[in-house]
Amino acid sequence: MKKAPGTLIFEYFNITPQKKFVPTHKMLKSILLLTAATLVTSQGQFQPSPGYFPVTGDDTIAGGIFCIPANDVSKYTAGTPAAAGGTGSESPTGTGPVTSGSGPYPAAMGTDPGLPNHTIYAPKTPPAGNLSMPFISWGNGACQTDGSQYRNLLTEIASHGYVVAADGLPTGSTGGQSKVQDSRDSINWAMKGGAKKYGNIDTSKIASAGHSCGGLEAMSVGYHDARVKLMILFNIAIFMDEKRYLLQELKVPVAWLVGGEKDMGFITSQKDYKLLPAGLPAYWASLDTGHGGTFSATNGGKQGKAAVAYLQWQFRGNATAKATCLDAKSKGSLVSDKWNVTYKNW
Ligand SMILES: *[C@@H]1O[C@H](CO)[C@@H](O)[C@H](O)[C@H]1NC(C)=O
Ligand SMILES: *[C@@H]1O[C@H](CO)[C@@H](O)[C@H](O)[C@H]1NC(C)=O
Ligand SMILES: *[C@@H]1O[C@H](CO)[C@@H](O)[C@H](O)[C@H]1NC(C)=O
Ligand SMILES: *[C@@H]1O[C@H](CO)[C@@H](O)[C@H](O)[C@H]1NC(C)=O
């Protein structure tokens, strides 16, 4: 393939086509449950204890201090609508084709030798240097180590002038689960200039985000880490009431994009939203997708649109994007897309 000078050569990277992923209820229920067996511990497990704030968000379990052991998930969802399954009226019916995203900077998936065991999403051609580009560290559902799992969503975000590093290579899960350190490795890499070949990275604009277990990893990596300026949790929130006191330590805006009452993050995210420190801005939106979201749809579907709008508002001060998120009456608002929206301190 002929390339423009300076074009990032994603074709040379080790890329596998996105697997056909048509989620079934069973798969979605097991998203957090998978591969718990291989947890390797090298430090004491965090024990909930109000008044005790660990120095970092690490823990022996995947997802970090805000998470629970994978084996315990069914205990927390038993007897709730979340136990019934992971889909809703807004769930995609299949996997949408991979595109370069809908944004002004056609993007692709690749790998980077400077950040082993991760997958990079970035514009194919570095945007002009006057576009400052935020950086996002991404954790996958079940904290799986397959960096291609959210390809449609993450390519869409990248096409709006972002660089995203997802945990795991794009070649499929290696069986283990990612840890907080994997997310931190991505942020360390970006801070040290590792991503500068993709464009003019603004290291004052770093977000952590993820789905399910990966969302809790995103909250855990941002805990006590002033480099992280935004947290976005997809379809998840803290499971254990005894861990919610940790929210007192958050200092940056939190957004939850959840999937209605069949989502294991639906009730819990509403609890967390209420328990944030006074004055901290927060955004909460819910669409009837169950736990599985709309990730597999082309460009990440309605979650892709919501995530881009939130990021463009937060990191680029885009007033149209802000209205999409906050103003139900604005054209193309998330409310008009059937999201229930709540926010505070904005
Ligand atoms: C990458 O992952 C493989 C398989 O999980 C592991 O053996 C290797 O040590 C990892 N490399 C780095 C640099 O983390
Ligand atoms: C960057 O500069 C070009 C050329 O002057 C201009 O067209 C473009 O709008 C600028 N972009 C930003 C993000 O400022
Ligand atoms: C939206 O809010 C309505 C009214 O509270 C509720 O019945 C519905 O389940 C909510 N839908 C989602 C997807 O959260
Ligand atoms: C703001 O966002 C809208 C919609 O996402 C987009 O069309 C527009 O170009 C953006 N404006 C700027 C100044 O980036």
TrEMBL record:
Keywords: Hydrolase. Residues 80-104 have a biased composition (Low complexity). Signal peptide: none annotated. GO terms for molecular function: hydrolase activity. SUPFAM superfamilies: alpha/beta-Hydrolases. Residues 80-122 are annotated as: Disordered. InterPro entries: AB_hydrolase_fold, Chlorophyllase-like. This is Alpha/beta-Hydrolase.
